[in-house]
Amino acid sequence: MTLALKARRKFVFIDGTITKPTTKRTLLNWDIVNSMLVSWILRSMDSKLTYTLPYFEDAKLFWDYLAKRFSVANGPRLQQIWAAITACRQTKTMSVDDYYNKLMGLFDELSRLKTLHYFTCGKCTCHVAGRFAVDRNEEKFHQFLVGIDDELYGFVRSNLLSRDPIASLDEAYNTLIQEENSRSIALGKIEKHHVHAFALQADRPRPLIDHVDRLKLVCTHCLQSGHEVGSCFKLHGYPEWWEESNQRSRAAVVQGRTAAPPARVAPFARRQPAAPERAHVVMGTKAAPTINSIVPVSDVGNTEASLANLKRD
Prior knowledge:
It comes from Lithospermum erythrorhizon (Purple gromwell). By secondary structure, the chain is mostly helical. It has 16 helices and no strands.
């Protein structure tokens, strides 16, 4: 908020550099800017917090009240922030960018409550204030590396700490972001390979259930083997594929019956005994010889012709 007001050249109304004028000619312009600053401050705050604030018309008085209420660096709050900074860790579901923003937000709040020391006398020539800033950045750098995931970025942390001179916070952040992007690309290729392999495995025909194991199943509804009551078609209804399969089976049977040729009756062998003779063979008796048992079947016609000629003689 301070930077935004300074960028618009309005912070001089907040810090008291420009006071409320007494002449009517300049009072109107000051009143317009003052009302605009009060509205900016209210809009930049949380809506739940604005209901707890008293009403102010003077932007400077409003700013001083907020400074007294929220900018007091007390001991318990500082300890709470330091505890949150120490416990800040990157979780499995947290990206490097999210972890960095969370940690830097805690350090920014710490900087607002406990600012760095600067010399205002103008007599210091050793630039000790800049060294304080460097020390604060090194604290951020080490705390940032302490909280990263050891399994994913432990080797990156070792490389950053082994540099001489030591890497800065910006270099560490940039290196970890690059490593995270490389891991994301590699992980995407691995997942794509697994999905392709799973699809190929799903296309393979599933092995049939052992016939012996299916015979052990007995349905308590229809008392038939091969299934249980939970999958009994007579109880739960026949599926569509079952009816289609039966229709195809019936059509195949009908087509087979119409296309099958009539059965061919095999002729008797020439030496095949007649039925009475077979009966005597079974009973152990000797039957009288017949014409069919003596004469071949093909010669029956010639034998009958010879008998007819004898009768004529």
